[in-house]
Structure prediction request, 616 residues.
Amino acid sequence: MNVGYILQRLLLALVVILGVTFVVFMIVHIVPGDPARVILGAYASNAAVAEIHQRLGLDAPFLQQYFTWLGNALQGNLGSSLITSQPVGPQLIQRLGPTLELTIASLLVGIVIAFPVGILSAVKPGSALDIIASFISQIGVSIPSFWMGILLILFFSLTLGWLPPSGYTPMSQDLGSWLAHLVLPAVTSGIVSASILTRFIRSAMLNVLGMNYIQTARSKGLTERSVTIRHGLRNALISIVTIIGLQVTALMSGVVIVEIVFAWPGLGRLALDAVLDRDYPLLQGAVLTVAVVVTLVNLVVDFLYFFLDPRIEYA
Amino acid sequence: MSDATVSPAPVRLTKARQAARSRGLWSDAFRRLTRHKLAMFGLVIILITAIFAAIGPNIVAYTPDKMDMKTRFAPPSAAHLFGTDDFGRDTFTRIVYGARVSLEVGVISVGIAATIGTFLGLLAGYSRRLVDEVIMRSMDVLYAFPAVLLAIAILAALGKGVGNAMIAIGVVYIPIFARITRGEVLSIRNEEYITAARSIGAGDIRILFRHILPNILAPIIVETSLSLAFAILAEASLSFFGLGTQPPDASWGRMLSEGRNYFRQSPWMGIFPGVAIMLVVMGFNFLGDGLRDALDPRLNR
Prediction:
């Protein structure tokens, strides 16, 4: 394995994370006017404004503020909530778990639907299944996920009473209840990824199935199943994994929305609550955490790609 | 998508036949687009929405914020085509006004993203090393944030409201345009006609905007249509969260969040705005797919 490539990729991830910290830092600084006034409202006393200035370090020169903030952030100190005065760090850790659970569950829902549907659509393009699947996937990418979430709640929770409408139970506390609460949010954001993935898997499979070695495999007398899976899918998998990796950012975006609709106590919900409370340190922490997670996932996907296809040489 | 269709191998035409058949890249593409059923279906949805957005306010019987407590929660009828909401406001009227918001936000935010993104992509692809590095790494940084979360963060800084939502959504989609443009510029930068233009003394600006940009427009146009779909969804989400369009203005996302608690007893409050969003987004997706097929036959193979 190419050590140079790994180092280069790690360096790039580091640069991106550094840039991410700068953008997150800027959230407070592009506030029009005095951030302290925005946070406290128009009738705040000068003493209160001064206190916010002091807590957010707003009086120091700009770059010095950034480096102080970055230095603290690197030590895990992201300040404290302006509302509750609790340190931000522990809250982020507490919220990261539910976000990751929901993201992974959604991806699983997407994969479980997209692989069989995508492969079968590619094996028989133009078949009834292919047409129905492509129609449904068009709806899947066009439907607002918050709306779909509400419709699912209306039907499965309020009408049928099968599943809880919203909320969360920690896995360690009650596995059954955790799963029951997970189903609807995971399906909601999973359907969106399933729609996107199905289209990619279908076209990746179509590409591969048109190759000469597929003809060869068939003419050797292999079963259709073996041709499709061992010769087709295996080769299509490389581009599919890349797409799944690229999906992670989009998926996290969907998860943010779904968390808010289902009152799922993750980072997305935290970020929105922080915005509505004008709690900037909390918002900064939530946004920073998600962006770092996304960057790390992309890094892992890149390495995975490398392992999956040893033919690829990276300079 | 018609991945299955195999484009015919290029046939060498005699000069005379070529002159007779060739109608230029754009008219060929246009012809292919008009034959693309889904794209035309998408275009019809978009045109109907645009017409409603433009002249709708003159044809609806009510004003969007006219409350009438006597007709709260009225089901769809001749007087109220799509029923009324919890304040007795006419749902159809609000949907028509919402169409305006959706299209405006979509067009302006994608306009911002496409203009800035394309410009940065041109610059990055054309200049070498440092400028390219700085621009593209900045794009990587923006791209590391999930779209909706970045938009929420920008709105936190700029303040709520539909105008700021346009800016936020615009910023979020800059990297996509920059990446696509840069890739295209790299692929044609060393073509002979670029070298030729340079050798007859064309300056960088002229080469970028007269020779490179027109030749890479196709993927940018496709991305514009697909981004409009995303932008309309994003505006609906932000308004649903209370960060975009502010009351009493009507926007589809807002209508869904306002009606959320009444969906069971008055389903029309929840169904019509949702269907409106879905149809328009679908329209832009269909048109985008059709444009891709029409403008870039290579991608179909």
